[in-house]
TrEMBL record:
It comes from the Bacteria. PANTHER family: DNA-BIDING PHAGE PROTEIN (PTHR46558:SF4), TRACRIPTIONAL REGULATORY PROTEIN-RELATED-RELATED (PTHR46558). This is HTH cro/C1-type domain-containing protein. Residues 74-84, 95-105 have a biased composition (Basic and acidic residues). Residues 69-105 are annotated as: Disordered. Keywords: DNA-binding. The keyword Cytoplasm does not apply. Residues 13-67 form the HTH cro/C1-type domain. It comes from Prauserella halophila.
Length: 105
């Protein structure tokens, strides 16, 4: 398996987060991390764990591949689908990212 260099990564967290009108603080709270962690992810200064990447992708209504796949391998599900669902998801920002739709406690 070929290792991906930092320059080959395609980090779209900021782009998708903004497209679905979510703040860094909202994303951080939903994912259970500090806002500074989201900032570091968006700057490509921090590679999230699989669990964190899944939580971020679920909250942004996209896939991990769409957020972090190397250049040329990312799907475009995040762009159009994320924006299309932004209106539907607007009322559910208080839900947990575990997929059960139950509010965080």
């Amino acid at each position: 398996m070929e290792q991906t260099s930092v320059s080959d990564r395609n980090n779209r967290v900021r782009q998708v987060r903004r497209a679905v009108e979510v703040t860094q603080a909202q994303l951080a709270e939903a994912a259970g991390v500090a806002r500074q962690t989201v900032v570091a992810m968006e700057r490509d200064d921090y590679a999230p764990s699989v669990y964190l990447a899944l939580a971020v992708a679920r909250y942004l209504d996209t896939t991990v591949e769409a957020l972090f796949a190397p250049q040329g391998e990312a799907t475009d599900r995040a762009g159009e689908d994320g924006r299309a669902r932004a209106g539907q998801k607007a009322g559910t920002r208080g839900e947990s990212v575990d997929g059960r739709g139950e509010p965080d406690e």
